[in-house]
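Section 5.1 Outputs to date
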Amino acid sequence: MTQHRNPAARRKHPEESIEDPFVARTLEGWLWARRHFRGLVSGVLGLALLIAGTLYYRNYRHSFRLQAAQELERVQQAVASGDIQVANNELQTYLSRFGDTRYGHEARLLLAELHLHTGDPQKAIATLEDAAEELDDPISFQAASLLATAYENAGRPDDAERLYVQIADKARLDFQIRDALAAAARLRANKGDRAGARQLYDRLLALIPQDDPQRPVFLLRHAEVAARPDTQATPNP
């Protein structure tokens, strides 16, 4: 006589059908973690070290910039004291330590001004040439203007004129453009380039409002240049 199994015996309970895959996945995960335990620990430790290193570097850079700002104030006081030798030594020491910070650019301006004040434009040029390569912030424009002055003092008017024109082409502030155009026009006029000087004075006058008190001054200079032959230099204003 054939025995029949109870159909209910072959049927899993709903709870078992739900829990079995979960248990299987949990077991698989546990076995995988056990096999890769060392790798997981190493990865977690590596990540923790990376985060700690990043935080340390940020804190270090913040402290370094704060120290650079504080030291610059002290150096500025040394420059203001009037002792040229002390100021020069303080600035050189500061640049050797903080020259790569944004405060280092300010220190280079101070050192270049010091060199110009003591009649050494060559040292001023050496101090500023790298700082004035890219005209992309107010400090670099100041450096470029000071460098152009150093070129003039060193007997390099063509380099000074080229830099003044570059400043005028890239500057965004009106006073920077006006000062640069006026200086470049003066240098062109001094070497007898009447057409070139007039061109720059035309650009300058186009920027100056009719009621600006400086406008008559530049109109006069424009007229003086126009009245002279190209081969004759005009005196410095």
